[in-house]
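User: Please look over both lines:
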Amino acid sequence: MTIRILGPGCMNCQRLASETMSAVAELQLAADVEHVRDPVAISRYGVLATPTLIINGQIRSSGRVPSREKIKDWLEEYR
């Protein structure tokens, strides 16, 4: 499973990264998690708002920090 967190490193980006890592750990998943901070790289994904959560190439959230439970629900879909 690949997870990308897009954002410049703002407080919400850090919160999304933390909640995502906690969700991955709670579900005991093997995942490649990367925080993409470079604006040029972020623009390649075509997103207009950050933070953005991408799981296996699919944008699941953009412009907000979803709850850990919601993130876990999304992760379960790829199990």
User: Anything to note?
Assistant: The domain at 2-77 is CATH 3.40.30.10 (Glutaredoxin). Helices lie at 11-26, 39-44, 68-77. The radius of gyration is 11 Å. The first strand starts at residue 2 and ends at 6.
